[in-house]
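Postdoc handover notes: sequence design on the structure in folder B. Input tokens:
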């Protein structure tokens, strides 16, 4: 099946999601599903880089990621986006970095410091996922792990099961509709 032709979901609320599925005559859903996100305003999240990075220089630094729901691409047949290296997110201008004193660090300076660190430019990665909360409601979640995106995207267990983490260092930020 080549895919779905989908419109953006309604932008009347802060966060909207629509599930597109092909259903057989017997009521069973075919494996190819598609989730599309929309909303009336950008999503903002802030977390300490120390939650993912081991390098002591970054322990008290903060990253602020802003993304419009319509720009989040959930993979077909899954409930999550691809993993993205934090350095790539910053380079795409989707994030702002702040040091421990709250001063903004220019992106070029942040990328240079990551490149020069012992762990290299692939210190940590994030992805977006549709998750089920404790109240049994769906929400959008930003997830992060201290590994490169290429490593995480190549792990079948992390591609199919977004809640399976084996690290003590991770982040999970919820956005409730």
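Designed sequence:
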């Amino acid at each position: 099946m080549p895919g779905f032709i989908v419109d953006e979901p309604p932008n009347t609320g802060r966060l909207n999601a629509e599930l597109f599925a092909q259903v057989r005559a017997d009521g069973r859903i075919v494996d190819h599903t598609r989730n599309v996100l929309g909303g009336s305003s950008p999503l903002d999240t802030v977390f300490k880089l120390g939650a993912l990075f081991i390098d002591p220089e970054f322990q008290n630094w903060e990253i602020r990621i802003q993304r419009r729901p319509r720009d989040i691409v959930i993979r077909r047949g899954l409930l999550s986006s691809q993993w993205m290296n934090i350095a790539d997110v910053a380079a795409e201008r989707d994030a702002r970095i702040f040091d421990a004193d709250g001063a903004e660090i220019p992106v070029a300076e942040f990328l240079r410091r990551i490149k020069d660190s012992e762990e290299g430019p692939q210190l940590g990665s994030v992805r977006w996922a549709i998750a089920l909360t404790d109240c049994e409601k769906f929400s959008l979640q930003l997830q992060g792990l201290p590994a490169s995106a290429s490593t995480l995207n190549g792990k079948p267990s992390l591609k199919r099961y977004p809640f399976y983490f084996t690290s003590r260092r991770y982040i999970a930020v919820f956005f409730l509709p």
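Context for whoever picks this up: Residues 159-167 have pLDDT under 50 and may be disordered. Don't rerun without checking with the PI first.
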